[in-house]
Write a structure and sequence with these properties.
Length: 204
């Protein structure tokens, strides 16, 4: 009798998985590194543009509303996070609803779906940008810095290893990022108390 809690060990399945090479082909991993670099560079450019806009807006504030250089970095950092999370989340929703088939065999879920590792590459590029900016300019907490490193490590499994469980990446690296969008909005309110006074109904 097969238990739903302790499923029967499928030796043939595990043998076929263990026979797969540890890493994806070198040419694929080289291309992945280039994509990660491109993503990190693109987010950096977006952030620098937003930083310039935020600095210009803060400079127009009244003299009694003092601001520090860190304020502009934090604001532009949060806006960039919001836009990236929104993009990943919307892509994840689309892939999960329309492009990821249901009832796929276990082996394919573990070894296949190289075409959706873009989510892993996007996450790694995103964290490669966020880690130095968060550490040097924004003053992120230790837990958030550890989070960035952890995502790079986990994302690298899906990006570079054969057993990457890529079938699930549109959900875990994409769709779930939608939950970060309202958090970004709330963090922006916390860093701008005047917004809370002006729009209390939104902050609630």
């Amino acid at each position: 009798m097969t238990s739903t809690i302790f499923p029967q060990y499928d030796s043939a399945l595990f043998d076929s998985i263990h026979q797969a090479p540890t890493f994806l082909p070198p040419q694929e991993n080289d291309e992945s590194v280039r994509i990660i670099t491109f993503v990190a560079a693109s987010i950096t450019i977006l952030h620098l543009i937003l930083l310039r806009i935020v600095k210009a807006q803060l400079s127009k504030k009244k003299k009694d509303q003092s601001s520090t250089p860190t304020d502009s970095w934090k604001a532009s950092y949060q806006i960039t996070n919001l836009l990236v999370n929104l993009t990943l989340g919307c892509l994840g929703i689309y892939y999960n609803l329309f492009l990821i088939p249901r009832g796929e065999e276990i082996r394919s879920k573990i070894l296949g779906y190289e075409h959706v590792k873009l989510f892993a590459l996007g996450q790694i590029g995103y964290q490669v940008w966020a880690l130095p900016v968060g550490f040097f300019f924004v003053g992120e907490t230790t837990s958030m810095l550890i989070h960035h490193v952890a995502v790079i490590c986990v994302g690298s499994v899906s990006a570079f290893l054969s057993c990457g469980f890529r079938y699930y990446t549109p959900y875990f690296y994409g769709l779930i990022e939608i939950s970060s969008v309202p958090l970004s909005v709330m963090n922006s309110f916390k860093n701008n108390p005047e917004w809370i006074k002006s729009y209390p109904e939104i902050y609630r």
